[in-house]
Amino acid sequence: MENILTLGIETSCDETAAAVLRGGRELLSNLISTQIPLHRKFGGVVPEIASRNHIVNIMPVIDEALAKANVKLKEINQVAVTFGPGLAGALLVGLSAAKSLAYALNVPLIAVNHLEGHIFANFLSAPDLEPPFLALVVSGGHTALIKMIDYNKFELLGQSRDDAAGEAFDKIARVMDLPYPGGPEIDKLAKSGNPDAVHFPHPKVTGYDFSFSGLKSAVLNYLNSAQMKGETINPADVAASFQKTVVDTLTEKTLNAAEEFKLDKIVLAGGVAANSSLEKSLREACENRGFGFYYPSKILCTDNAAMIACRGYYQSLENNFADSTLNAVPNLGL
Ligand code: KG4
Ligand code: ZN
Description:
Blueprint: E1 5-10, E2 15-22, E3 26-34, H1 36-40, H2 47-69, E4 78-84, H3 88-105, E5 109-113, H4 114-125, E6 133-138, E7 143-150, E8 153-159, H5 165-175, H6 182-190, H7 213-228, H8 235-260, E9 265-269, H9 276-289, E10 292-294, H10 298-301, H11 306-316
Parallel strand pairs: 1-4, 4-5, 6-9, 9-10
Antiparallel strand pairs: 1-2, 2-3, 6-7, 7-8
Helix pairs in contact: 2-3, 4-11, 5-6, 5-7, 6-8, 8-9
The chain binds 5'-O-[(R)-(carboxyoxy)(hydroxy)phosphoryl]adenosine and zinc ion.
């Protein structure tokens, strides 16, 4: 199985991506064509524009991924593709490409859950990582704590009841007139701000579920009331204070879960894993308690097909294959 070549395909949102993986961990190529500049002028992803651009980009991106890997199409042993969650039209482009290639090559097709893919990005960044561990998935659409018992066995401990962490970052950035996607912009701005300047209430949700809509409203109220009173605000302080509230909440719940479930390795995953303050906070907390801490390299944090190929490889070890009736599941959960 070490020499199995998996072609990964990812088109769930605004990145058209393809990657070639040898075995479970040897990444031969990882191509990402981002549409961020196209969507920026609308302040967020426009689904129809995303689908159309995936159609234009998908085959060139796959060709380039094969060329970079120095692998011929006919050498591919299996095709792994994201089937959800994501935008329906965007997912369908990747699915159509993957199904056609698997059929033409007469190789197995593997249906991958995008969120599981984010966790598996860590296996590519840290070749020594093995389950069991606790995973915190923080992306644009999801916030979740997952107990990874084994490669193909996991348990959802809790998730966001409303906005995902990334969604809160993006919405706050938008009202502060920062460009899309807002997460990296808030991260940058927060570096020059005082995280204790503004007190925003910490979300109060028991157990391992999360809620970020109350915090989002508190920040919006703060900005609106300052504007109505004609007061000037310090955007860097607002960004830093908001970010700290999110980071503290995520760190606290994650550490509590690690202790309760006796897991001594914590794995960070998803686009918000690229947040410098979250990474620092979790790293320090893990160091203090003697836990191992893992998070993917920046390019593997946000959407990519390498993580999809990796997840697909481990599914193939259990003969977990799909057939040509595979359809997109936009609201697929964990
Ligand atoms: O995982 P991802 O690429 O796409 C989804 O599956 O949703 O995550 C995108 C999210 C966006 O909300 C983006 O603002 C956020 O990740 N993000 C960040 C940072 N980089 C990306 N959030 C905070 N700080 C960052 N540095
Ligand atoms: Zn994602």
